[in-house]
Every structure is written in structure tokens, then in C-alpha cells.
Design brief:
mainly alpha; 7 helices; disordered N terminus
């Protein structure tokens, strides 16, 4: 098969969903208001706003239904937990494996996450890796207060994602 032939459907620049100008403006305004409210709440609770946005992003990795959004959040939270375990495992292996400790742990984590890509509920690799990145970027010690902080902030983001989705379906896509 020649690679010079490209199907016109795959190169189309048309939006997947047709919206009127009013729907487009309303959809955009709802998303902006919900994101601003979630940022305000996060800040009011002394949580990192960027961590809240990790939950918001995770929700929208699979925005087709509330169930899929919840599954995305589960993968995010499991990714955070896996990152803490990885942090501990790497530290534990350094005396035994020296400079190979980190690559060995990364290999094991990648095997697990990628291996779960067809497992219902746990099949959102983006959610898992977003959780891993969130944990390491937050630079928190693996302790209960860290998990509470990460869990609450990302839950606010996930709720904001759900609210944005629900409000847009109710008003902007009607």
C-alpha cells in the first residue's frame, strides 16, 4: 500500500461536533467559570491549583461519560499511589542495584501500567502516567498528609471536570 495516498477523511479540519456560535460561546464560558471556581476553591483550601488541574485533565482524558471520567480518576489516584511505591522501591534498591535501581523500577512500573491497558476500569494509561507525574512534580514525602493533599486537590479537579461536562451537556449541547 502506498503511503502517498491519504484519505481525505483523515485530513479534514472540520470540527467533530457542529455547534452554533451561541453554543460555542456558552460552552467556552461554562468551562472557564467552572475552572475558575475550582481554582478559587483549591486556593481557599490551601491546595496547589496545578494539582487540581491534574484532576481536571484526568477527567477529560475520557470525557464520554461520567463512568469513564470516574475510571480516569481512579487511574490518576492509583498512579499517585504507584509513584509513592516507586519512590520507596527506588530508594530501597539503590544499595543493591546502584545506578540500575531507577531504570529497574521504571521498567516494572511501565510493565504494570501498559499491561493494564486492556483491563476494564484500569485501562487509562494517560490517567496512570498523569498520577505518576503529579506525585513526583509535587515533591511531597510519601505520607498520609501528602496523599490527602493530592487526593483532595485532584478530586476538586475531577469534580470540576464532571460539572463542566454536565453543565455543557445540559445547556451548550441542548
Amino acid at each position: 500500500m502506498s503511503t502517498s495516498h491519504v484519505d481525505a477523511k483523515t485530513t479534514s479540519r472540520e470540527p467533530r461536533h457542529q455547534q452554533t456560535r451561541g453554543q460555542f460561546v456558552l460552552f467556552t464560558a461554562i468551562a472557564a467559570i467552572v475552572a475558575a471556581a475550582a481554582a478559587w476553591l483549591s486556593e481557599a483550601l490551601a491546595l496547589e491549583v496545578w494539582i487540581m488541574f491534574a484532576g481536571f485533565i484526568a477527567w477529560f482524558t475520557r470525557p464520554t461519560s461520567t463512568r469513564d471520567g470516574i475510571h480516569s480518576m481512579i487511574c490518576l489516584w492509583l498512579g499517585i499511589l504507584l509513584a509513592a511505591i516507586s519512590y520507596w522501591a527506588t530508594g530501597s534498591l539503590i544499595s543493591l542495584a546502584a545506578s540500575l535501581a531507577l531504570p529497574l523500577v521504571v521498567f516494572a512500573v511501565a510493565l504494570l501500567v501498559v499491561g493494564l491497558r486492556t483491563t476494564p476500569v484500569l485501562d487509562n494509561m494517560l490517567g496512570w502516567f498523569l498520577g505518576l507525574v503529579t506525585y513526583f512534580a509535587a515533591e511531597l514525602e510519601p505520607q498520609l498528609t501528602s496523599f490527602a493533599n493530592l487526593g483532595l486537590a485532584t478530586a476538586i479537579g475531577g469534580f470540576a471536570g464532571w460539572a463542566c461536562q454536565a453543565l455543557n451537556r445540559r445547556f451548550a449541547e441542548a
